[in-house]
Fold:
Amino acid sequence: MREALFVKQNSAKWHLYDKLESQDPDVLAERFIEITDDLAYSKTFYPKSKTTAYLNGLASRFHQTIYKNQKEKSNRFVGFWKTELPLLFKKNERQLLYSFLIFVFFCLIGALSAKYDDQFVRVIMGNSYVNETNENIAKGDPFGIYKGHGEFTMFFMITSNNIYVAFNTFIWGIMASLGTVYHLMRNGIMLGSFQYYFFSKGLGLESVLVIWIHGTLEISAIVIAGGAGLVLGNSLLFPGTYTRLESFKRGAREGTQIAIGLVPVFIAAGFLESFITRHTEMPGWLSGAILAASFLFITWYVIIYPNILHRRAKTGNLS
Structure:
Protein backbone atom coordinates (compact mmCIF):
# COMPACT_ATOMS: atom_id res chain seq x y z
CA MET A 1 0.00 0.00 0.00
CA ARG A 2 1.03 3.62 -0.33
CA GLU A 3 2.84 5.18 2.61
CA ALA A 4 0.13 7.77 3.15
CA LEU A 5 -2.52 5.07 3.55
CA PHE A 6 -0.25 3.06 5.85
CA VAL A 7 0.24 6.12 8.07
CA LYS A 8 -3.47 6.97 8.03
CA GLN A 9 -4.42 3.45 9.14
CA ASN A 10 -1.95 3.36 12.02
CA SER A 11 -1.19 6.92 13.13
CA ALA A 12 -3.81 6.97 15.90
CA LYS A 13 -2.37 3.79 17.39
CA TRP A 14 1.21 5.10 17.16
CA HIS A 15 0.34 8.38 18.89
CA LEU A 16 -1.47 6.45 21.64
CA TYR A 17 1.56 4.22 22.18
CA ASP A 18 3.89 7.24 22.06
CA LYS A 19 2.03 8.71 25.03
CA LEU A 20 1.73 5.41 26.89
CA GLU A 21 2.95 5.83 30.44
CA SER A 22 2.17 2.35 31.77
CA GLN A 23 5.08 0.43 33.28
CA ASP A 24 3.21 -2.89 33.17
CA PRO A 25 5.61 -5.22 31.29
CA ASP A 26 2.71 -7.10 29.72
CA VAL A 27 1.29 -3.93 28.19
CA LEU A 28 4.72 -2.79 27.05
CA ALA A 29 5.52 -6.18 25.52
CA GLU A 30 2.30 -6.23 23.52
CA ARG A 31 2.88 -2.70 22.26
CA PHE A 32 6.50 -3.51 21.40
CA ILE A 33 5.44 -6.51 19.29
CA GLU A 34 2.93 -4.42 17.35
CA ILE A 35 5.35 -1.55 16.78
CA THR A 36 8.15 -3.86 15.59
CA ASP A 37 5.73 -5.50 13.16
CA ASP A 38 4.83 -2.09 11.75
CA LEU A 39 8.51 -1.14 11.68
CA ALA A 40 9.37 -4.27 9.69
CA TYR A 41 6.71 -3.40 7.14
CA SER A 42 7.85 0.20 6.91
CA LYS A 43 11.50 -0.83 6.49
CA THR A 44 10.49 -3.16 3.66
CA PHE A 45 8.49 -0.65 1.63
CA TYR A 46 9.59 2.80 2.84
CA PRO A 47 13.17 2.25 4.07
CA LYS A 48 14.30 5.89 3.98
CA SER A 49 11.07 7.60 4.98
CA LYS A 50 10.30 9.69 8.05
CA THR A 51 7.71 7.06 9.02
CA THR A 52 10.42 4.40 9.33
CA ALA A 53 12.63 6.71 11.37
CA TYR A 54 9.73 7.55 13.71
CA LEU A 55 8.80 3.88 14.22
CA ASN A 56 12.42 2.95 14.79
CA GLY A 57 12.68 5.53 17.57
CA LEU A 58 9.40 4.42 19.11
CA ALA A 59 10.44 0.74 19.04
CA SER A 60 13.80 1.62 20.61
CA ARG A 61 12.10 3.45 23.45
CA PHE A 62 9.81 0.52 24.17
CA HIS A 63 12.77 -1.86 24.06
CA GLN A 64 14.75 0.20 26.56
CA THR A 65 11.76 0.47 28.89
CA ILE A 66 11.08 -3.27 28.84
CA TYR A 67 14.65 -4.39 29.37
CA LYS A 68 15.99 -1.64 31.62
CA ASN A 69 16.42 -3.85 34.70
CA GLN A 70 16.48 -7.49 35.78
CA LYS A 71 13.16 -7.32 37.62
CA GLU A 72 11.34 -6.43 34.44
CA LYS A 73 13.18 -9.20 32.56
CA SER A 74 11.79 -11.64 35.09
CA ASN A 75 8.30 -10.20 34.65
CA ARG A 76 8.79 -10.40 30.90
CA PHE A 77 9.42 -14.14 31.24
CA VAL A 78 6.16 -14.62 33.14
CA GLY A 79 4.41 -12.31 30.70
CA PHE A 80 5.23 -14.66 27.84
CA TRP A 81 2.74 -17.25 29.12
CA LYS A 82 0.42 -14.69 30.63
CA THR A 83 0.04 -12.44 27.60
CA GLU A 84 2.21 -13.06 24.55
CA LEU A 85 1.45 -16.72 23.96
CA PRO A 86 -2.34 -16.39 24.35
CA LEU A 87 -2.30 -13.40 21.97
CA LEU A 88 -0.37 -15.51 19.46
CA PHE A 89 -3.09 -18.15 19.74
CA LYS A 90 -5.65 -15.46 18.94
CA LYS A 91 -3.64 -14.01 16.07
CA ASN A 92 -3.18 -17.45 14.49
CA GLU A 93 -6.53 -18.95 15.43
CA ARG A 94 -7.27 -19.84 11.82
CA GLN A 95 -4.13 -21.98 11.52
CA LEU A 96 -4.96 -23.67 14.84
CA LEU A 97 -8.44 -24.44 13.57
CA TYR A 98 -7.08 -25.89 10.33
CA SER A 99 -4.67 -28.06 12.31
CA PHE A 100 -7.53 -29.33 14.47
CA LEU A 101 -9.72 -30.12 11.46
CA ILE A 102 -6.89 -31.91 9.64
CA PHE A 103 -6.12 -33.97 12.73
CA VAL A 104 -9.76 -34.93 13.32
CA PHE A 105 -10.17 -35.88 9.66
CA PHE A 106 -7.27 -38.32 9.80
CA CYS A 107 -8.46 -39.66 13.15
CA LEU A 108 -11.69 -40.63 11.41
CA ILE A 109 -9.68 -42.17 8.56
CA GLY A 110 -7.73 -44.22 11.09
CA ALA A 111 -10.86 -45.40 12.88
CA LEU A 112 -12.61 -46.37 9.63
CA SER A 113 -9.52 -48.16 8.37
CA ALA A 114 -9.29 -50.15 11.60
CA LYS A 115 -12.96 -51.03 11.37
CA TYR A 116 -12.75 -52.47 7.85
CA ASP A 117 -9.26 -54.00 8.06
CA ASP A 118 -8.48 -56.30 10.99
CA GLN A 119 -4.74 -55.96 10.41
CA PHE A 120 -4.66 -52.19 10.18
CA VAL A 121 -4.10 -51.63 13.90
CA ARG A 122 -1.13 -54.02 13.82
CA VAL A 123 0.37 -52.13 10.88
CA ILE A 124 0.03 -48.81 12.70
CA MET A 125 0.71 -49.78 16.32
CA GLY A 126 3.01 -52.75 15.79
CA ASN A 127 2.51 -56.44 16.57
CA SER A 128 4.28 -56.32 19.93
CA TYR A 129 2.03 -53.56 21.27
CA VAL A 130 -1.16 -55.26 20.07
CA ASN A 131 -0.08 -58.67 21.39
CA GLU A 132 0.82 -57.26 24.79
CA THR A 133 -2.46 -55.36 25.02
CA ASN A 134 -4.43 -58.49 24.04
CA GLU A 135 -2.66 -60.40 26.80
CA ASN A 136 -3.48 -57.64 29.29
CA ILE A 137 -7.13 -57.71 28.24
CA ALA A 138 -7.22 -61.47 28.76
CA LYS A 139 -5.76 -60.96 32.26
CA GLY A 140 -8.38 -58.35 33.10
CA ASP A 141 -5.94 -55.43 33.05
CA PRO A 142 -6.39 -53.92 29.56
CA PHE A 143 -4.30 -50.83 30.30
CA GLY A 144 -1.50 -52.61 32.09
CA ILE A 145 0.95 -51.33 29.49
CA TYR A 146 1.02 -48.03 31.37
CA LYS A 147 2.49 -49.88 34.36
CA GLY A 148 5.40 -51.42 32.45
CA HIS A 149 8.08 -48.99 33.67
CA GLY A 150 8.87 -46.99 36.78
CA GLU A 151 7.19 -43.62 37.12
CA PHE A 152 10.32 -41.48 36.70
CA THR A 153 11.64 -43.54 33.78
CA MET A 154 8.29 -43.25 32.00
CA PHE A 155 8.11 -39.54 32.73
CA PHE A 156 11.43 -38.72 31.06
CA MET A 157 10.84 -41.09 28.14
CA ILE A 158 7.31 -39.92 27.42
CA THR A 159 7.92 -36.22 27.91
CA SER A 160 11.04 -36.12 25.73
CA ASN A 161 9.33 -38.15 23.01
CA ASN A 162 6.24 -35.93 22.99
CA ILE A 163 8.34 -32.76 22.79
CA TYR A 164 10.31 -34.34 19.93
CA VAL A 165 7.09 -35.23 18.06
CA ALA A 166 5.68 -31.73 18.57
CA PHE A 167 8.80 -29.94 17.37
CA ASN A 168 8.99 -32.23 14.34
CA THR A 169 5.37 -31.38 13.56
CA PHE A 170 6.23 -27.69 13.79
CA ILE A 171 9.61 -27.63 12.03
CA TRP A 172 8.46 -29.62 9.01
CA GLY A 173 6.02 -26.83 8.28
CA ILE A 174 8.94 -25.28 6.44
CA MET A 175 8.09 -27.69 3.59
CA ALA A 176 5.26 -25.40 2.47
CA SER A 177 3.13 -26.74 5.36
CA LEU A 178 3.05 -30.20 3.77
CA GLY A 179 5.46 -31.63 6.33
CA THR A 180 3.20 -30.51 9.15
CA VAL A 181 0.14 -31.97 7.43
CA TYR A 182 2.02 -35.27 7.06
CA HIS A 183 2.82 -35.41 10.77
CA LEU A 184 -0.75 -34.51 11.67
CA MET A 185 -1.88 -37.29 9.34
CA ARG A 186 0.43 -39.86 11.00
CA ASN A 187 -0.60 -38.97 14.52
CA GLY A 188 -4.28 -38.65 13.61
CA ILE A 189 -4.44 -42.06 11.93
CA MET A 190 -2.56 -43.60 14.85
CA LEU A 191 -4.95 -42.13 17.41
CA GLY A 192 -8.06 -43.05 15.42
CA SER A 193 -7.04 -46.67 14.93
CA PHE A 194 -5.77 -46.93 18.51
CA GLN A 195 -9.02 -45.63 19.97
CA TYR A 196 -11.19 -47.78 17.69
CA TYR A 197 -9.24 -50.85 18.79
CA PHE A 198 -10.45 -50.44 22.38
CA PHE A 199 -14.01 -49.70 21.29
CA SER A 200 -14.00 -52.88 19.22
CA LYS A 201 -13.02 -54.79 22.39
CA GLY A 202 -15.93 -53.32 24.34
CA LEU A 203 -13.60 -51.03 26.28
CA GLY A 204 -14.53 -47.71 24.69
CA LEU A 205 -15.70 -45.74 27.72
CA GLU A 206 -13.06 -47.27 29.97
CA SER A 207 -10.34 -46.37 27.46
CA VAL A 208 -11.53 -42.76 27.32
CA LEU A 209 -11.52 -42.45 31.11
CA VAL A 210 -8.01 -43.91 31.34
CA ILE A 211 -6.13 -42.81 28.22
CA TRP A 212 -7.51 -39.29 27.99
CA ILE A 213 -6.36 -38.45 31.51
CA HIS A 214 -3.08 -37.54 29.84
CA GLY A 215 -4.25 -37.62 26.24
CA THR A 216 -6.30 -34.43 26.52
CA LEU A 217 -3.20 -32.30 27.11
CA GLU A 218 -0.91 -34.40 24.93
CA ILE A 219 -3.11 -34.47 21.83
CA SER A 220 -4.14 -30.83 22.23
CA ALA A 221 -0.48 -29.82 22.33
CA ILE A 222 0.29 -31.80 19.17
CA VAL A 223 -2.60 -30.10 17.38
CA ILE A 224 -1.32 -26.70 18.55
CA ALA A 225 2.18 -27.64 17.35
CA GLY A 226 0.55 -28.42 14.02
CA GLY A 227 -0.93 -24.92 14.05
CA ALA A 228 2.57 -23.53 14.66
CA GLY A 229 3.82 -25.52 11.67
CA LEU A 230 1.07 -24.07 9.49
CA VAL A 231 2.02 -20.58 10.67
CA LEU A 232 5.58 -21.29 9.52
CA GLY A 233 4.60 -22.87 6.20
CA ASN A 234 1.91 -20.34 5.33
CA SER A 235 4.34 -17.49 5.91
CA LEU A 236 6.19 -18.77 2.84
CA LEU A 237 3.09 -19.58 0.81
CA PHE A 238 1.11 -16.42 1.59
CA PRO A 239 3.46 -13.51 2.37
CA GLY A 240 0.72 -10.94 1.85
CA THR A 241 2.05 -7.39 1.71
CA TYR A 242 5.45 -8.43 3.11
CA THR A 243 8.41 -9.71 1.17
CA ARG A 244 8.62 -13.49 1.31
CA LEU A 245 11.75 -13.32 3.46
CA GLU A 246 10.21 -10.89 5.94
CA SER A 247 7.02 -12.93 6.08
CA PHE A 248 9.05 -16.07 6.75
CA LYS A 249 10.96 -14.39 9.57
CA ARG A 250 7.70 -13.37 11.21
CA GLY A 251 6.17 -16.82 10.75
CA ALA A 252 9.29 -18.55 12.08
CA ARG A 253 9.37 -16.30 15.15
CA GLU A 254 5.70 -16.77 15.98
CA GLY A 255 5.72 -20.50 15.26
CA THR A 256 8.78 -21.01 17.44
CA GLN A 257 7.20 -19.07 20.30
CA ILE A 258 4.07 -21.23 20.10
CA ALA A 259 6.10 -24.46 19.99
CA ILE A 260 8.28 -23.44 22.94
CA GLY A 261 5.20 -22.41 24.88
CA LEU A 262 3.91 -25.99 24.66
CA VAL A 263 6.77 -27.46 26.70
CA PRO A 264 5.01 -27.01 30.08
CA VAL A 265 1.91 -28.68 28.64
CA PHE A 266 3.94 -31.72 27.59
CA ILE A 267 5.59 -31.86 30.99
CA ALA A 268 2.15 -31.88 32.62
CA ALA A 269 0.91 -34.54 30.18
CA GLY A 270 4.02 -36.67 30.83
CA PHE A 271 3.47 -36.38 34.57
CA LEU A 272 -0.16 -37.47 34.27
CA GLU A 273 0.68 -40.42 32.03
CA SER A 274 3.56 -41.60 34.20
CA PHE A 275 2.17 -41.05 37.69
CA ILE A 276 -1.64 -40.96 37.33
CA THR A 277 -2.79 -42.95 34.28
CA ARG A 278 -1.18 -46.13 35.63
CA HIS A 279 -3.76 -46.19 38.45
CA THR A 280 -6.39 -47.71 36.19
CA GLU A 281 -8.42 -48.83 39.18
CA MET A 282 -9.27 -45.27 40.23
CA PRO A 283 -12.97 -44.37 40.37
CA GLY A 284 -14.51 -43.25 37.11
CA TRP A 285 -15.59 -39.92 38.61
CA LEU A 286 -12.00 -39.10 39.55
CA SER A 287 -10.50 -39.87 36.15
CA GLY A 288 -13.41 -38.02 34.55
CA ALA A 289 -12.71 -34.99 36.73
CA ILE A 290 -9.02 -34.95 35.74
CA LEU A 291 -9.96 -35.29 32.07
CA ALA A 292 -12.54 -32.51 32.35
CA ALA A 293 -10.10 -30.21 34.14
CA SER A 294 -7.52 -30.71 31.37
CA PHE A 295 -10.13 -30.05 28.68
CA LEU A 296 -11.39 -26.91 30.41
CA PHE A 297 -7.85 -25.62 30.84
CA ILE A 298 -7.02 -26.05 27.13
CA THR A 299 -10.33 -24.50 26.09
CA TRP A 300 -9.81 -21.54 28.41
CA TYR A 301 -6.12 -20.92 27.68
CA VAL A 302 -6.19 -21.43 23.91
CA ILE A 303 -9.63 -20.05 23.01
CA ILE A 304 -11.42 -18.10 25.76
CA TYR A 305 -8.54 -16.26 27.48
CA PRO A 306 -6.89 -15.12 24.20
CA ASN A 307 -10.20 -13.55 23.13
CA ILE A 308 -10.48 -11.77 26.46
CA LEU A 309 -6.93 -10.41 26.08
CA HIS A 310 -7.62 -9.40 22.49
CA ARG A 311 -10.63 -7.34 23.56
CA ARG A 312 -8.58 -5.73 26.34
CA ALA A 313 -5.78 -4.93 23.89
CA LYS A 314 -8.21 -3.05 21.68
CA THR A 315 -9.12 -0.80 24.59
CA GLY A 316 -5.50 -0.43 25.69
CA ASN A 317 -6.02 -2.33 28.95
CA LEU A 318 -3.98 -5.51 29.26
CA SER A 319 -3.29 -5.19 32.99
